[in-house]
Design brief:
The protein is globular. The protein has 3 domains: 34-219, MFS general substrate transporter like domains (Growth Hormone, Chain: A), CATH 1.20.1250; 226-280; 287-452 and 460-521, Growth Hormone, Chain: A. The chain has 22 helices and no strands. With 533 residues, it is mostly helical. The longest helix is centred in the C-terminal third of the chain and has 35 residues, at 475-509. Keywords: Membrane, Transmembrane, Transmembrane helix. This is MFS transporter. Residues 41-514 form the Major facilitator superfamily (MFS) profile domain. It is a multi-pass membrane protein.
Length: 533
């Protein structure tokens, strides 16, 4: 049977009339069959995931110190944007390389590049060299994230995979929560270079562990790299992400220069489609997009990135500017969101593994996101912190319940030979949704604050207020500023609600697919039937 022509996980024998009919296929033997070795390899993957995702968060609180040493504050944002840009550009390439050459050599190359990039970051002598080193680091980091999800698909059966991918989601959330705290603490105690150099021992440890424990499965296909397609796709992604961030350079994402960048991306995308239709091994097979299930899940992934990742910084700003919380206290309040994600992720993963269904969890996740964004739009200056914390907890639960659905569903609906490319598409859509949403949210807040003014002491500018400056103002001025920010955030939260509403519609349209039972579940069911007989 041609591996490319089949989606290997559909339970075709189920009598449920709602199931999307797919042909039965020969079961795939997991790459690692020994349970203890599976767990050990997975722990190594979790370490690599934490290392790669932490590094995008840990730099945030160290940036003021870096700018103080190097100067060039106008390039402040590019230390983070360069990482996001390069990560997004290389994800599809790594997914395809894993399909063609095998996961093991690809992830080891990615970890090596990331570790070397971390070393160069730690040795940077200027802001320009640091930004260039961040690009090098991201060329490995993007491959780590995509390869880990693909390897998880190789070593676990579908229902077990749901549970383990929920753990990866917890690692992602843990790195987001711990990154700013670790960045500030390490830069204060050991200098800012330590936040990059700490990756070296962890990178070497993971490399040695995967070399010894992760088997190599040679793909059945002859490697044929679509270099032109990879270049055009990278250019398309770079153009879109750069357009989303272009507001800080050109003043608006609708400025002529920004629209020229977007037009260039559209031209590159058109050329990419033309190339992919002709090459034998496209970098991102267009056949993936012929599945209605895949399209719906990619939209859900994009919306989840816009809400779960893109809104975090703005919720933090909302908390600080409308409640008077310090950055540290606002960060502590995010424990409610992180805790909700942890609970929802574990619960959702186990329930998907038990029921074999992922559609209900996509629906619940999107519906919860819609409700919480609507609730956020009704919060005003002076709302009790307890109520805000409850809303954040509910939001976290919703994100956690559905966080693994897009990856799991797309892997289930895609031929085994294209799992890596399909997984990279899911991750890319999530990152792209976050990047574009950040730009949209920023434009909304800027428009909401434009023309608003408060007479502040010592001639201070309203738009340049920091949480510390706000806390030092008289009570009446604090209230006036809080009300202005509260009003500015209403359209932002309503926009976020519309985005997640689109995800809810897509979730309701998903076919009610059931994942096949694991070998242990099959044996337990047969034993139960035998006992009943």
């Amino acid at each position: 049977m041609d591996a490319r022509s089949s989606a290997p996980y559909q339970d075709a024998k189920s009598p449920d009339p709602d199931l999307e009919p797919l042909p039965p296929v020969t079961p795939i033997v997991p790459l690692v069959t020994d349970p203890r070795r599976q767990v050990t390899v997975f722990l190594l993957l979790m370490t690599a995931m934490f290392m790669a995702t932490l590094d995008n968060q840990i730099v945030s609180t160290a940036l003021p110190t870096i700018v103080g040493e190097f100067g060039q504050p106008e390039r402040f944002g590019w230390v983070g944007s360069a990482y996001l840009l390069a990560t997004s550009a290389v994800m599809p390439l790594y997914g395809k390389l894993g399909d063609l050459f095998g996961r093991k050599p690809v992830i080891m190359v990615a970890i090596t590049i990331f570790t070397l990039g971390s070393l160069v970051c730690g040795l940077a002598v200027s802001m320009d060299t640091l930004i260039a080193a961040r690009v090098l680091q991201a060329l490995g980091g993007g491959g780590i994230m995509v390869s880990i999800l693909s390897i998880t698909a190789d070593i676990f059966q579908p229902r077990d995979r749901a549970r383990y991918q929920s753990y990866l989601g917890l690692v992602l959330m843990a790195s987001s929560a711990a990154g700013p705290v670790l960045g500030g603490t390490m830069s204060e105690l050991f200098g800012w270079r330590s936040i990059f150099l700490i990756n070296l021992p962890f990178g070497i440890f993971v490399l040695i562990g995967l070399y010894m424990l992760l088997p190599y499965r040679k793909p059945d296909r002859r490697p044929k790299i679509d270099f032109l397609g990879a270049l055009l796709l990278a250019g398309t992604i770079t153009s879109v992400v750069f357009w989303a961030d272009s507001g800080q350079i050109f003043g608006s994402i609708l400025a002529p220069q920004s629209l020229a960048v977007l037009l260039a991306g559209a031209v590159l995308a058109f050329a990419w489609v033309k190339v992919e239709r002709r090459v034998p091994e496209p970098i991102l097979p267009l056949s993936i997009f012929r599945s209605r299930t895949v399209i719906l899940l990619l939209v859900i992934s994009m919306a989840s990135g816009a809400i779960g990742i893109g809104s975090v910084n703005y919720i933090a700003l909302f908390l600080q500017m409308t409640t008077g919380l310090s950055p540290a206290m606002a960060g502590l309040l995010f424990i409610a969101t992180t805790g909700g994600i942890a609970i929802g992720g574990i619960l959702g993963g186990r329930l998907i593994a038990w029921t074999g269904r992922y559609k209900p969890f996509a629906v619940v996740s999107a519906a919860t996101g819609l409700v919480t964004m609507a609730l956020f739009s009704q919060l005003h200056a002076g709302t009790p912190l307890m109520i805000i914390g409850i809303v954040m907890l509910i939001q976290g639960l919703g994100v956690g319940i559905g966080q693994q659905v897009p990856t799991l569903g797309v892997q289930n609906a895609t031929a085994r030979a294209d799992v890596g490319a399909a997984t990279s598409a899911v991750t890319l859509m999530r990152m792209g949704g976050a990047s574009i949403a950040i730009s949209i949210y920023g434009a909304i807040i800027s428009a909401g604050l434009a023309g608003r003014a408060v007479s502040l002491p010592d001639g201070a500018e309203f738009q340049e207020l920091t949480p510390a400056m706000l806390a030092s103002l008289p009570q009446d001025l604090q209230k006036a500023v809080a009300n202005i920010y509260s009003d500015a955030f209403v359209p932002l939260f309503l926009t976020a609600a519309l985005l997640i509403a689109a995800a809810l519609v897509c979730a309701l349209l998903l076919p009610n697919i059931r994942l096949p039972k694991t070998e242990k579940q099959e044996l337990a069911e047969k034993a139960g039937q035998a006992a009943a007989a």
